[in-house]
Structures are given as structure tokens and as C-alpha cells.
Design brief:
The complex is a heterodimer of chains A (121) and B (107).
Chain A (H helix, E strand, L loop, with lengths): L2 E4 L3 E3 L5 E8 L6 E8 L6 E7 L5 E3 L7 E6 L4 E6 L8 E10 L6 E4 L3 E5 L2
Parallel strand pairs in A: 2-11
Antiparallel strand pairs in A: 1-3, 3-8, 4-5, 4-9, 5-6, 7-8, 9-10, 9-11
Chain B lengths: L3 E4 L2 E4 L5 E7 L7 E6 L6 E5 L3 E2 L7 E6 L2 E6 L8 E7 L6 E2 L3 E5 L1
Parallel strand pairs in B: 2-11
Antiparallel strand pairs in B: 1-3, 3-8, 4-5, 4-9, 5-6, 7-8, 9-10, 9-11
Classes of the chains: A mainly beta (121), B mainly beta (107).
Chain lengths: 121, 107
């Protein structure tokens, strides 16, 4: 079955960086985008951006530009998101999600299980 | 950025009740709207795409309608397993944006 499995819990200090992974299985990895979204505690969903697993092209939400990098490793069907200069407001569950077929993600399906990133001194 | 406004933010209903959630876009998004279900402690799940297309395997008690700026999500007969927060999401323009969510509880 189609599955996205993310890396585990992270605890970081303000100013540090975090890198979360997302391993895909059950489909042709390069036919879709991988999107990254986050959800702060008790809050709604926020889209951070996507990466085309085929071309490596990225599209980041303006809010995160300059602070985020999304990459993929097609040899292991794994996507990564790195967020730098962490602040306490970056504390959230980070999700990867497969976009709809092709290079533009109309919707997100399925989602990874989520990775809790806590930023605290 | 397109703002998505959901209402209500929460509701309480009895098993078997009809539940309706609305989502309003800040500009015309045609039918470029999806609905997700997020059960407590779980990742979101896509239920409906293109405003009204039910995903495979999703029970028929769920439905969606609307176009332009006004959209509706309906559960025709609320079941215990429908306890969740529901989100709308637009894909007409970047950045992709979500409504604030509607938490559905059992009365």
C-alpha cells in the first residue's frame, strides 16, 4: 500500500536547524510531488511548500523562503525538509504528504504520520 | 493569499444527525477545493476533492458541494467514528491554504 513514513521526534534549541525525513513506498516516487505541511499545537494546517520528486524543482511558501530547504533522494525514495534558525513558534508537528499526480499538488494524499519538532531553550 | 473561512469552528451533534460545515473563499476559486478529516492524534485524510468528488473508500454519508466562493461539506447521518476536525483547502492559487477547521463532537 502507499505509505509515507517519517523520522522521529526532534528537540532543538532556538537558532538551531532540524532535518526531517519522509520515506515513500508503494508508488512510483518520481511521478508526484512531496509536500511539507505543519500544525502548531492546537492549531490548523499550514502548507510550507513542495518538491517535485522528478525534477527536484521546489516551490516554497513565501513565509519560509530563505529558511527552508526541501530535497529528495530518488535512490531511496526519501524526501527531506530542513528548517533553519528555529524559533519557539516553529514548535509543531511536521507532515509530509504526497501531492496529486504530476508536478502541481492539487490535493494531499496520503500523509505521513507526522514528526513532532519542539523548539525550546 | 486566498483566505479560507470555515464555520462553525466547532459543533456538537447527536448520532444520526445531519451535519453541515461551510467554507468561504476570499475570492473565486471555481471548484478547486478539497475536504480533509483529521481524527484526534492522527494525520489528516483526504475525503473529497474538486469540491464534490468523493475519494475511493470514503462512506457515501459524506458529501461536498459549491463553487466560486461558497462551499458546503455535509455528513448526512453522523456516526461515532466521524468525531474529528474537518478542514477545507484551496488549490486555485499559491500558497495553498486551509480553513481554520471545524471540530465535530458528539452531543
Amino acid at each position: 500500500q502507499i505509505q509515507l513514513v517519517q523520522s522521529g521526534v526532534e528537540v532543538k534549541k532556538p537558532g538551531a536547524s532540524v532535518k526531517v525525513s519522509c520515506k515513500a513506498s508503494g508508488y512510483i516516487f518520481t511521478n508526484y510531488t512531496i509536500n511539507w505541511l505543519r500544525q502548531a499545537p492546537g492549531q490548523g494546517l499550514e502548507w510550507m511548500g513542495w518538491i517535485s520528486a522528478h525534477s527536484g524543482n521546489t516551490n516554497y511558501a513565501q513565509k519560509f523562503q530563505g529558511r527552508v530547504t526541501m530535497t529528495t533522494d530518488t535512490s531511496t525514495n526519501t524526501a527531506y525538509v530542513e528548517l533553519r534558525s528555529l524559533k519557539s513558534v516553529d514548535t509543531a508537528v511536521y507532515y509530509c504528504a504526497r501531492g496529486s499526480y504530476g508536478d502541481y499538488p492539487y490535493w494531499f494524499d496520503p500523509w505521513g504520520q507526522g514528526t513532532l519538532v519542539t523548539v525550546s531553550s | 493569499e486566498i483566505q479560507m473561512t470555515q464555520s462553525p469552528s466547532s459543533l456538537s451533534a447527536s448520532i444520526g444527525d445531519r451535519v453541515t460545515i461551510t467554507c468561504q473563499a476570499s475570492q473565486d476559486i471555481s471548484e478547486y477545493l478539497n475536504w480533509y478529516q483529521q481524527r484526534p492524534g492522527k494525520a489528516p485524510k483526504l475525503l473529497i476533492n474538486d469540491a464534490s468528488t468523493l475519494e475511493t473508500g470514503v462512506p457515501s454519508r459524506f458529501s461536498g458541494s459549491g463553487s466560486g466562493t461558497d462551499f458546503t461539506f455535509t455528513i448526512s447521518s453522523l456516526q461515532p467514528e466521524d468525531i474529528a476536525t474537518y478542514y477545507c483547502q484551496q488549490y486555485d492559487n499559491l500558497p495553498l491554504t486551509f480553513g481554520g477547521g471545524t471540530k465535530v463532537e458528539i452531543k
